[in-house]
Design goal:
The chain is built from 15 helices and five strands. By secondary structure, it is mainly alpha-helical. It binds tryptophan and iron/sulfur cluster.
Length: about 325
């Protein structure tokens, strides 16, 4: 590990992972595993800040997301994979950081303001939800991460983390490096209804979907909205199915569809069938590995336990430094 920069990132276990998560984050993490000392964790306490009325779901998705990770290529040999709530030190550091974090920093956090409006069906006027970025800061600096690979929506949280780290160092002495954002390019993956793919929009194709589920979802995908009849020429440039072809089909197929769609030589039903077959095939290895892990729950638990053990060693050491710095 010596010499490698450390990165850390997390995901909330609020649902099964979908293709948007794969392209938005996971693919990137998988690639970073050789270059960095990677810490990836499941942020179950963060899930609790918004889903506190439904903790059973959180519990269920911890294992599900871990299996999503393992079956797409996160490797417990290369990376430290763990669950946030198993490392109680996060909570202690969160508590200490909350003493030095000015409330206005949290109140002006754009993600906070947005989420309060967007998730108006939930009562988010809680202390814990306001303190979300403080917990995230604890997650990050407890491992002294150099970088945090995240999408653009998480930049404000890493900014607050840097401010909190700076304030701690200023008050008690240099303990924490200020982590950098490693911006993940997030190609826009649209769901079957052409809105951004999201579990809450009910438009997602999940990594754990069966071939039948994938085929059925693809058959419901909205194509070129101008193409009403089979005899109308279509425009692949505005068609989400074509976007998927570009990822999952070979060049000849993509070229043929690009040509034939425009002259109504191919219909959307057939075009979708081809895409669905290729997508199903591409996810075959993921399904295979998922089956293996589902049949070996003890192995998954062991992987989580080993990861937590490695994470805990680092977290404990940082907490010792923190306690020494504040002398409490
Ligand atoms: N807030 C992040 C998200 O919703 C999840 C998260 C929690 C996280 N703690 C983190 C990400 C620490 C990076 C680093 O996606
Ligand atoms: Fe889209 Fe294919 Fe239909 Fe053309 S034929 S509009 S690319 S689904």
């Amino acid at each position: 590990m010596a010499g490698k920069k450390r990165i850390l990132s997390g995901m909330r276990p609020t649902g099964p992972l979908h293709l948007g998560n794969l392209f938005g984050a996971l693919d990137n993490w998988i690639k970073m595993q050789d270059e960095y000392d990677c810490f990836f964790f499941i942020a179950d306490w963060h899930a609790l800040t918004s889903d506190y009325e439904d903790p059973d779901n959180i519990k269920r998705y911890i294992d599900h997301v871990m299996i999503d990770w393992l079956s797409t290529g996160l490797s417990p040999e290369k990376s430290t994979l763990f669950v946030q709530s198993h490392i109680k030190e996060h909570a202690e550091l969160f508590l200490i950081l909350s003493m030095i974090t000015p409330v206005p920093w949290l109140e002006r956090n754009p993600t906070y303001k947005e989420q309060i409006v967007q998730l108006s069906n939930k009562d988010l006027s809680t202390f814990g939800f306001l303190g979300y970025p403080v917990l995230q800061a604890a997650d990050i600096i407890i491992y002294k991460a150099d970088g945090v690979p995240v999408g653009v929506d998480q930049i404000p949280h890493v900014e607050i983390t840097r401010e909190i780290a700076r304030r701690f160092n200023h008050l008690y002495g240099e303990v924490f490096p200020e982590p950098e954002v490693i911006l993940t390019k997030t190609p826009k993956i649209l769901g079957i209804d052409r809105r951004k793919m999201s579990k809450s929009y009910n438009n997602a194709i999940f990594l754990s979907d069966s071939p039948d589920e994938i085929a059925s979802k693809v058959s419901q995908m909205i194509t070129d909205p101008q193409r009403a009849r089979r005899s109308d020429p279509g425009n692949p440039d505005v068609c989400n199915v074509f976007e998927f072809h570009k990822t999952y089909s070979n060049k000849e197929t993509v070229d043929a569809i690009n040509r034939d769609c425009r002259i109504a030589q191919i219909g959307c039903v057939d075009c979708k069938k081809i895409m669905a077959q290729n997508l199903i095939k591409a996810l075959e290895p993921v399904r295979e590995k998922r089956k293996f892990y589902e049949q070996h729950p003890d192995l998954v638990n062991q992987i989580i336990e080993d990861g937590c053990h490695k994470a805990r060693m680092v977290a404990k050491k940082t907490l010792e430094e923190v306690r020494a710095a504040i002398n409490i």
